[in-house]
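During the reporting period the student researcher (J.K.) took over the structure-prediction task from the postdoctoral fellow and processed the backlog of single-chain submissions. One of the processed entries is reproduced below for the supervisory committee.
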Amino acid sequence: MFGKSANTFHVAAKHMLGIDLCYSCRRLAIFGAPVQEEHNTWKEDSASPDASVGFLADCATGGAWVESLRRTIGLLKDRVALRRSGLSVDIASARATPPSESRLAVEDAMAAQIFSFVANLLTERSGSMLQYARSYPHALCGLLQASRDGQAACLAMFCEDWKAYETARRLALPDLRKIVERSPMQSRVMEDFARMARAGGWSLDACGALLSRVKKAAMCFAQENIIETSFRGQRDAETRGNPCKSMRNWKVYERLQTSDLIRLFGMQPLEPNVDIPIGTEAKIEPSDEFLFSRRGSSPNHELLRQLCGKQDWVSTDAQGLNKHVADTEALRTLLRHDDFALASVLWQNLLIPKHQVILVHGAGVSAVYCFHVAGHRFGCVLLACSAYREPSHPARGRGRLGAFL
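J.K. obtained the following structure tokens:
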């Protein structure tokens, strides 16, 4: 729309005069509000190192971000939200005066737009947050939650996943080769975590070193946020009213001091001490001229060529992260069935249609309605919506939105 408009006022005029466009924007604002509210507070929730520990623990246990998705699904049966979106929800009036065919076609198109937006929103948001909830090493942040039962469950799941990975690596089946090759368990970080957990006998009481290491790693999440926010502020100051593409040191210091960054992350500003004199002549000893020295062996020119040459870095997106989640869940399922030969039929997960609500039956648990988020070669990603209740009467009038109600 911006490309076909002359300026911003032209876009605003189209929005004010176009009733269809106005209702479409209103639908996006209504059904995107829960996720937007939750997403807008993540910086404050992970500002300090201690806050980042609680934030990652909440993400690993499916806290605020899962609740925002369930609130989004709940809006599909909110009559006020549906009425504000342009749909007719007065059943008595519709029975007294049946709507015309053209009106039904319009409302069906509006319902299709709402369903498409909600389905894609659930897919994208859950796909981006599953790396913190079900993908390692972020899933280990569940050990940092307050509930001791939750900590024990997280450690038990890690033990089971590591055992499934070791079994798949030992069997070396052709269908499991790709899962093992791209598994996050083969990273040095996960090997260290598994080594510490094995030293403690996979017992929560004896895994204090593991919990301490996971907590220190989670505290670094705030440092990355601080660096990114600082660079973004410096970049903004560099491009505004600065003809040259460089900034002096005092300008960088002034920008950080006057910004809201220090208060946001709960840091203490560093005040210069004017009482300490600084010498004007630097005396460098011969032994201090070089801090590092090269060994006598010849350099690895092939390695230097690879490091200094052109590199094609692999950027991981939400779709790629979901593959790790599906792989881990598939290995766990095969381990529970004690039959890794079933990996040859895992491709049948691709037959499940995307953006459908599925009734999942589990052993020892009640059936649950799940929303199919994404499908992969070795598994599919489902989002639990609500528990199944036996209907007291036959289902009637199930349309596009009926599956969520």
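The committee noted the following: Residues 280-294, 392-405 have pLDDT under 50 and may be disordered.
J.K. will present the remaining backlog at the next meeting.
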